[in-house]
Structures are given as structure tokens and as C-alpha cells.
Please model this.
Amino acid sequence: MKNKGQVMTGAEIFFECLKKEKVEHIFGFPGGSVLKLYEQLYDIDFLQHILVRHEQGAVHAAEGYAKASGKTGVVLVTSGPGATNTVTGIADAYMDSVPIVVFTGQVPSHLIGNDAFQEADMMGITRPITKHNFLVRSVEELAITIKKAFYIASSGRPGPVVVDLPKDVINSKCEFVYPDNMEIRGYKPTIKGHSHQIKKAAEAISKAKRPLLYVGGGVIMSGGSQELALFARENKLPVVMTLQGLGAFPGTDDLSLGMLGMHGTYWANQAVDNCDVLVSLGARFDDRVTGNCETFAKNAFKIHADIDPTCIDKNVIVDIPIVGDVKHILAELAVEMPKPPDIKDWWSQIYEWKDECPMQYEDNDGRLRTEYVIEKLSEKTNGNAVIVTDVGQHQMWTAQYYKYNFPRSNITSGGLGTMGFSVPASIGVSFAVKDRPIISISGDGGFQMNIQELITAAAYKVPVKFIIINNSFLGMVRQWQEMFHGEKYSFTDLSASNPDFVKVGEAFGIESFSTDSPKDVDSLLDKALSINDRPVLIEFKVVKDDLVFPMVPSGGSISEMMVKRINSKRMTLL
Amino acid sequence: MKHTISVLVENHFGAFDRIATMFSGKGFNLTSISIGETEIPDISRMTVVTEGDNQILDQIVKQLDRLIDTIKVIDLTSAYHVERELALIKVSMQKATMEQIKNITDIFRGTIVDITNNSMTIEITGPPDKIDATVNVLMPFGIMEMARSGIVALTRGEQIKKNNKEKIKKNNKSQIIKETK
Model:
């Protein structure tokens, strides 16, 4: 390969930079403005380019790749429609703090602003949904910009970075020097938490009567799962997790109370409501977690550790803020603890709640239910699979019933709630994870939103198990219609229009199965788990009108939590 | 409560836009915003006037700080500082009112920068409440057009951070070197 200081084209520089950043996979789709890059790519062997069928799929795939591996996902698309198609994915990555760098082609510099063919103002469009974005204005700026982009995307609170590449920049030449380091004077993430604050927090936890750890995705991103496990176990602290936090702490551990929030477990939410010291670790007090901010953990002394200072005091005012990397903070907290808190009574209270209202579903009418499928899946994979869910009822059921044992196993669109996430994201995961089963779970609605990526799955023979939870409805919307909108099932019934998913799978060249009987679940899952060299699709036709419980209504308090449906019109309030 | 926030930003493409987008995207109130050069060539100073309670202000400062292009964010409100605004006010004028308008301009230490048979343009500088007062007094004569610059502000005395001072020194030095060359 070429040496430092050599004159190269922008396209050559581009790939040299990716090489320096140790990029092994890029997800993309070619087009007019990036032809020169694809010309260069033709002869490149140090990375694999994965051709998707729609640019949104490329971004979700990069997200899945990044979430599963911890590395930065890379996307390459053309200008105009290619670039605007990435927008949903970028917004998704922004909400869930996923490190990705999206390279978008752009019309030649002199045509920018001229309404040129396939021109879109990507700087303007993506400004509010990126951590940062760059327009590379000359080939001399290219290398340093790429270096900055990767640094910004992956450091601090991770997030998406867009790099807009005008065609002339890629085509022109300059001397290539990859900077060893660079300084961004306006960007210096705080890594080490303030020792004094940590000490105060440790004292508060050790004096607590009813402490609770509230764990978010930040723990997984910082790689702090081990530190968390040590800290929680040494002090016997109960752990509740957010949707993105699932996997940060083993779901099978006795200390785990499962997920909190809108569809969290009864005992997790009761614990939040009644705790006296709440320790938030890498979580952001999202409205799906807090419900009514006024009543959220109302009597608790609140400690909030997060790397992003804007998360602190945004929704809920806290008593001890600690800005820094959660992994470091947890390690220091463990050292600073004067003694473990005395919380036997607190634990017996939690067990009481657990007995009072355990997670349960109807399973005696012989009809197939999502909860059963997920429970079986959890059993068969020992919580060891990478589960990529879409958005909706199946996502919540998976969060409730799948016992994630490892970090980076739960990959889902949380913040933005993007239907159509799972199929492409699971394909991205398959390029990062080689030794564990990868399972994509979608509803029948979301599955059709990026259905075109099945061809990508088939073309690259990715060993993903595509599970469709088909209730012939946009289930979560239907649930809200039933509960809050007078049972007016407006445009959520897909039963008449859904395709035959087995035929769809087969058309894409994917072995496909379907069942509506609980009896077949075992054998079908076994079959799918035994296929490891190609994708496989299973459609589970489940009960149409099941609701996800428990449920705290949007903006409500824990006291308004509903745990089951009595009849179609009334819910039990506890 | 009104707050004046001083923001040092990278003097490059899009930095201004990022700040404006952040305000609109987060639903923060933006009363005025002004931007201009500083003593350091590649840094601009933006003076933002905004409104909100303490929690909102805390968020505004943090959100500004979070932007990659912002180098330093200071809420000047609680610090000793000087605020100035400039306004150009075009007032309609007849022979009979000319002397009156001129007197008012003098009282507010303004300057007449343009005059025609029917109008007079007054330049007035000062804290925003002084400009408000001037505008109120001139209103009855008929204000034809007005342009206000938005507030610019600086802390009083030498309340600048050490590293900033070093930057300034360095910058001055490099300028001196440039000049001698």
C-alpha cells in the first residue's frame, strides 16, 4: 500500500483513512456522486462492503453492527435520495447513542445550492439528528475530517456523524498524511467522575434502607457490565434495567428485577416507587421509564451518573450528579463504599411484590402466544443469543421474557422506536458476531417496512433467524386503540392484506416455516437454531388481540399501573 | 428571567446554524443573537439572549456546551458584565418636529447619521432598556423603520480564564510576528 506523504486522489485517501481506523465492514449502496469511491472499492480487499437494498437498511445494519461489536459502524451512500434515505437510521442512532459514521455523496462543490441533480442539503437535514456533521470542502481537509468523525462518533456519549463528500473532493488529489492526533478544542468528554461526588454517592448508598440501581444502555456502551456486576453483588443491591440496559446485568441473576417503566415488571416499578436511594447509571430518565416525572421515585434521594451532562437534571432533578464514564464511576464507587447497606427488609418487600404479581400470561387455551415463543427461545439459547427486536408488542414481550445474560445481546430501536429496524440491524449484527445465534424478531407490520433487506440476508447467507410474530395487527397501536381510543381499530387490521410470509421468504430464497400451534414451537426453534450457514424464517401466527401487561399509561404514575385485562373494556388497576 | 449568554464558537461554516437549530429543536426561547469576530481570528463570539427558569437555563448552557463547535459558554447574567446594543431608528420628520427630535437624540446621546426632508435616522447605543426608552419617546413622531443589533456583552475587568489569556498572548505574538515579516 501507499506510503505517508504520497499524492493520492480523494477516493484513495478515503480508503486509506478507513484502513487506519481499522474499518472491516461498510454497509452501502452506490450512486452517481460516489462512483469514484466505488471504483476504488473494486480493488480493495482489506474491508468488506455489504450491498444493501435500501439506504435506510444500510444505516440500521451499521447500527446493529456497532451495538453488537462496540466498534463504529460505517455507511457509504450517494447524494440526494441515497443520503435522505439514511435520515431515519441516523435519527435512530442519535436517539440510542450508536456510534456510526455515515458518508454521503454530494454534488460537486460548485453545484452545491444550484438544485443540481440528486442534490440534498445533508448538512441542514441532519444537523439536529447527528452528534456532529461535516461537509468536506477540499481534498486537503478529507483525512483530518474522517479522523475527527470517527473520534467524535465513538467517544464520550457515542452518536452518529455524517460526512458529506462532494464529488470533486473525491476526484481531486493531494498529499496524504494521516494525522496521528488532532485536537477539537470544543469537545473534551469527561471520563473520570468527580471523586468527591462519588464518595458522597457511596456514603448515601451505604446508608440507604431501600437502595435501587437503575441501569441504562450507558453501562453497556462504556463496557462497565463487569464493574456493575461486582458492585451490585458485593452490596446485594437490586437492579432494574431500561430497555437499552437489558443485558448490562444478567437477567437470570437473583438481584435482577428486570425492566422498569411503561411495560416493566410490577416489582421493578414498585421498587422504583418505594426506594429511598435511586442510583441511575448511564440512563436518561426517558418518559417511557419515568411516566409522570413529578411522581417518579418521589421519595428517593437520586444519584445520576452519566457521561453526557445534558442528561442530568433534564427530566428529573437529582441530588448527586456525577459526570463521567459509568465504567470508571462504578469501579470507584465499589472502592469507596464504606460498608454494604443493611437491606434485608427491603429484599423481603421486593419478594412480596414478586409473589403478589408475577409475570404471567394465559396459556391454557391451546392458542399460540408471543410470550410462550420468547420464553422457549430464552430457554433454548440460555439467554446467550443476540436478539434483535423491532418495535411494538413483540419488542416489549421480548424485553419481559427473554433473560439476557450478556451485554450487547439486546439490540433494539428504543428512543426513536423505528419499525423496520430489526431485519437490517440483524444483518449488520451477523457481520460482527460469529459465535452466537442471531435472532431477529419482528411483528408482521414492522417486518414489511424493510422487507427488501431479506435479499441482502440471502445474498450474504447470513445465519440470522428471522422470526415474525404475526398477530395480523399493528399490535401496539391496536392495544392503545383498545385501551385509550374507544376500541376504534382505525387502520391497524392487516389480516386481509398481509402477504403469505412463507411464500415471501421463499421468493427471496430463504427457507421459511409457519405455525399457529404452540406444539410446533419447540421443533421449529430447534430447526432454526440448527441452521448456521444461511438465513431461516419462521412465522408464528399468534393470538390477535393480546395486550402487553403490566402497563403504566403514558405520563402516568406507578399507582396507575395496570396488570391485566378483565374484559375488552376494563383493566385491573392495582 | 432574561439571561445573556456569551458563547465562543469556531469561526467556521455552519457553527451559527448549529446554535440556532439547537434552540429551535429543543424549544428554547431565543430573544436575540449576535455574532462577530473576536481577538482570535478563528474564534467568533456569539451573544445569546434567552429566557427561562433555572432548570431551563442550566439545560441551555449544557446543550450549547455539548455542541462540538462551541469552545466556551458563559452565562453572564450573574457575573459583572457590560451589555450594549446598537439601534438605527428612522423617524419621520417635519420642519416643526426637527428640533424636538434632535433634542431627544442629544438627551439619549445618540447621533444623527442621515437626514432628508422627511426623515431622520438616529444611531443609538447603550443597554437595551435605554434603546427601549428612546424608541418609546420617538414613537409619537412615527418610526418608519428600525434595526437593532441584538446585545453584545463582555465581562467587566479581567475575569478571563488563564488559558484564554495564554491564547491571547500567543495570538498577539503571532500577529506581531506576522506584522514584522
Notes: Residues 2-79 of chain B form a domain with the Alpha-Beta Plaits fold (CATH 3.30.70.260). Chain B has a mean pLDDT of 88. The longest strand of chain B covers residues 81-92. Chain B touches chain A through 21 residues (CB under 8 Å).
